[in-house]
Amino acid sequence: MKKQEKLALVESALEDFYGDQQFASSLRESVLYSIHAGGKRIRPFLLLEVLEALHVAIRPAHAQVAAALEMIHTGSLIHDDLPAMDDDDYRRGRLTNHKKFGEAMAILAGDALFLDPYALIAQADLPSQIKVDLIANLSLASGSLGMVAGQVLDMEGEHQHLSLEELQTIHANKTGKLLAYPFQAVAIIAELAPELQAKLKTVGELIGLAFQVRDDVLDVTASFEEIGKTPQKDLQAEKSTYPALLGLEGAIAFCNQTLDQAEAKLEEIAQQVPFETESIVKVVESLRING
After folding, report:
1. Which residue in 18, 195, 188 sits closest to 120, CA to CA?
2. Out of 8, 181, 188, 231, which residue is the most buried by the measure of CB atoms under 10 Å away?
C-alpha cells in the first residue's frame, strides 16, 4: 500500500469520527481547523508502515488507532502554542488555533482531542484485550507519565543550564513517547513476543530522540517558510537545546548517530521475525541532517 493510501485511511477515520458528531459546531470547527492544518502525519504513517513491514494486512481498525494517535498529537500542538506555554502565533504556516478561535475555544479543542481518541480506539474492530492495551499505552505515553510530564519539565527548564541527560529526559517524555507509541501499538496488534516488543519500542524511542534533536537544529537554522512556525523560539525562551549543549555540528552528528542506532535495532528485529525494514529505514533516513 502506498503512503498516500495509508494517509487517506487515517484521514477517513478522522472524518468518520467527527463527521457524524452532533455537537457544538464552533468546537467542531476549531478541532477540524487544527486536524486539517497539514503536517507530515509521521506518527500515524509509521504505525501503518511498521504493521505492513511485519506483513500484517492493514484494516480500517488499524487506521482508527493511527488516527487516535494523531488526535493526541494535534491536541498537544494546540495547547503548546497557547500564551501560557510557548506563545506562538503560527503553526504549520498558518495562525495557531487560539489566534483563530480564541484561547478558551483552543483549550477546549485540545481537551476534545485528548479525550476523543480513546472512544475511537474503543470502537475499533479489534479484540477487547488488544484495545485495552492500546488505550493504556496511549494514555501512559500522553499523560502524567509521558508527554504532559515532559511539557512540565520543559517549562521548568527554561532559563536553566541543563545537562545533556536532563535534556534527554525532558524530550524522551515530551516528544519521544508519542513517537515510540506507533511501534508499541504495532507490537500489541501483532501480538509479538515481549523481547520483540521491547526492541520495537526502543526503535521508536531512538527515532523520537533524533526527531527532537533535528527540531532543535532547525529552530536555529531554518526559516519560517521551511518550518511553518516562528524560528528561534527556543533561543528567545532561553531553553537548553542540543545545539546549545553540543554545538551545531555536534547536534547534527548526535542526531545522525541516533538514527544509526535505530537502523541497527531494526536489523536486529529483522533477524528474528519476517520484517521488511526498507520502508522504515526510508523514514529514518528522511530525518537525517545533511545526510
Report:
1. 18
2. 181
